[in-house]
Amino acid sequence: MTKTAIIAGTGVLPGILADRLDETNTPYVIAELEGFAMENPKGRPVERFIVERLALLFDRFDDLGVEQVIFAGAVSRPAIDPERIDPKTATLLPVLLPAFQQGDDALLRAVIALFEDAGFSVVGVDSVAPELVPGEGVLTTAQPSQDDKADADRAAKVVAGIGALDVGQGAVVAQGLCLAIETLPGTAAMLRWVAEVAKTCRANPNGAKGVFFKAPKPGQERRIDLPAIGPDTVVQADAADLAGIVIEAGGVMLLDPEATIAEANSRGLFIWARTP
Amino acid sequence: MTKTAIIAGTGVLPGILADRLDETNTPYVIAELEGFAMENPKGRPVERFIVERLALLFDRFDDLGVEQVIFAGAVSRPAIDPERIDPKTATLLPVLLPAFQQGDDALLRAVIALFEDAGFSVVGVDSVAPELVPGEGVLTTAQPSQDDKADADRAAKVVAGIGALDVGQGAVVAQGLCLAIETLPGTAAMLRWVAEVAKTCRANPNGAKGVFFKAPKPGQERRIDLPAIGPDTVVQADAADLAGIVIEAGGVMLLDPEATIAEANSRGLFIWARTP
């Protein structure tokens, strides 16, 4: 089995991936960026590292026999303390520092390149836990209607259109009309707003209830930072009185597939992984 | 003076335009689409018409010496009752009915063409009341800072980007980050959401407060249906803790310029009509 390092940020994803690797008896190590502690209910051992000593993490991975790394969880841009930089990591700075001046995508690509240059392959969630990233298909008992599919088409166009603007990755469309677009405050805040305000704006109160659509940005580096939904998203979509959730096939994670699908089935919502 | 017909829909705009025409002693008549009564605090006489008898309205305008028409106020697509169609209007249906199947812009263009074909010139608000559609300049005592101008640049890009999607005409940007995008529920609902939820999402709580930006859609027919702001918008933007309001110069109406600017001055917000 390929020895794998999970580069962990905050949230539940690192622990979920570790569970999956345990199930398949894949050996792994968890490396956690200082200041961005993962949720760690099982108290797994973690190696802590800092960006200023990234080269030492590479050495440590070599010692441990790590062959591939997978990024999991959220981090924001860490501040860099010049006094903590070791000599070996200093040689990486001509690549790393300019990337810090750029957008998120450019920074992520530079970080991936550094790991690859150090001899590690960088893989996405789908390669170690494909069940977390559904391909085309309806995952639930409930199925999208023709109206729901038309709403999904419209929402996909809206989300693709805003993708280039780096604003958000989701939208709500009902009866062809865009009720909400995801922005900085995120999915939960948007769906709460639809529940409280926007759901009364549907043209026909008895018509199609609408869909929440989520997709990665066009051209997004899919080995890091895939958008995700979970059981909470289903609860929020139900509160917003939507018919279901549409995700881009192969581009959006289910953080806990069994619980997410069970939640949708118990509420009569559909979840459809849709090919773009 | 050119005899003018105001084609009135709901809201305050028809009355405001009538006030302006009174001030300049321009003769006018108000024609109101049945089912979409204007706000008429001064109890002005109105001619009522129905789409099914549009040709009779043209005849009436000819009798009254009307030379130009201006559309003011909001209407939604009226249902058409075949039994009410008069023979002369029936000849217009080959143009009108297909337009009813299309988007708002296409319908508006078809309606404008019908009036023009009947011999009336169709003019925009700016031609009878230019003070309602400000050109480039800051209208208030408060001025936008460099940060505010950068936020306006970003917001203009976002609004131009969503314009092609026919979603909305406004956005809120603070410190370079898009907090909200206007959708079907409109400006007031969006700004209320920023006030209640999104304003805590600013990266730096002490940094630039951000702007509300509003512009017409790219390619929008500017003789009908310009976006508008008013004193209420200023109150809402202040509640959302924004630094000011940016509108596209020549493309957005101030429904009541004096009251809107006074409201902004009393609250320390700027209003900037910005050249794209």
Describe the structure.
2 copies of one chain form a homodimer. With 276 residues, the first copy, chain A, is an alpha/beta fold. Chain A has 2 domains: 4-127, 3-Layer(aba) Sandwich (Rossmann fold), CATH 3.40.50; 133-274, LpxI C-terminal catalytic domain (Cytidine Deaminase, domain 2, 3-Layer(aba) Sandwich), CATH 3.40.140.80. The first copy, chain A, is built from 10 helices and 13 strands. Chain A has helices at residues 13-23, 54-64, 87-90, 93-100, 104-117, 125-128, 146-163, 187-196, 231-239, 257-267, and strands at residues 4-8, 28-33, 47-49, 68-72, 121-123, 137-138, 170-174, 177-181, 211-214, 228-229, 244-248, 253-254, 270-274. In chain A, the strands form 3 sheets. In chain A, strands 6-13-11-9-7-8 form a 6-stranded mixed β-sheet. Chain A has a 5-stranded parallel β-sheet with strand order 3-2-1-4-5, sandwiched between helices. In chain A, helix 4 packs antiparallel against helix 5, helix 8 packs parallel to helix 9 and helix 9 (231-239) packs parallel to helix 10. The longest helix of chain A is centred in the middle third of the chain and has 18 residues, at 146-163. Chain A starts with a strand and ends with a strand. The mean pLDDT of chain A is 91. Chain A binds chain B through residues 157-158, 161-162, 164-165, 167-168, 177-181, 183-185, 189, 192-193, 197-198, 201, and chain B through 157-158, 161-162, 164-165, 167-168, 177-181, 183-185, 189, 192-193, 197-198, 201. Chains A, B: Residues 136-272 form the LpxI C-terminal domain. Chains A, B: This is DUF1009 domain-containing protein. Chains A, B: Residues 3-132 form the LpxI N-terminal domain. Chains A, B: Pfam families: LpxI_C (PF06230), LpxI_N (PF17930). Chains A, B: InterPro entries: LpxI, LpxI_C, LpxI_C_sf, LpxI_N.
